[in-house]
DNA sequence: CGATTGACTTACA
DNA sequence: CTGTAAGCCAATC
């Protein structure tokens, strides 16, 4: 495993943690922000270990605003409930008004 | 160590 | 517009 890769994972965690309340972002957006636009899967994979990183993975969805990773959470609708609790409307694993709640790290976050 | 898979995305038919 | 293909890279088998 290359040290840079670890940096990549670490950055994913950092960015994910900076997601504002009631906002969501996509794997691709984070990957693009980190300079690995074609490695969106790595972002999702990084989320695999996010459980121990205090990372709000429920705020990270795919490009369509679909909660594809909800199956990796404890409960069945935990991810949806968490988002709903933050004011994000989620219907059938689909974030409503995705564009309105979308949080682009490359625009909102400046390293 | 080679093959398979996966919390994705883009491109082309 | 729907379906299939490929690329990405690390983890798992």
Automatic annotation (TrEMBL):
InterPro entries in the record, alphabetically? ATL_DNA_repair, MethylDNA_cys_MeTrfase_DNA-bd, MethylDNA_cys_MeTrfase_DNAb, WH-like_DNA-bd_sf
Q: Which domain of life is it from?
A: Bacteria
SUPFAM superfamilies from the entry?
Answer: Methylated DNA-protein cysteine methyltransferase, C-terminal domain
Entry keyword set: DNA damage
**Record bears the keyword Disulfide bond:** no
GO MF annotations, alphabetized:
catalytic activity
Output the Pfam families linked to this UniProt entry.
DNA_binding_1
Q: Where is the Methylated-DNA-[protein]-cysteine S-methyltransferase DNA binding domain?
A: 7-88
Record's keyword annotation contains Protein transport = no
Q: Where are the transmembrane segments?
A: none
Q: What does the entry give for GO biological process?
A: DNA repair
Protein name, entry field: MGMT family protein
Q: Which organism is it from?
A: Bizionia myxarmorum
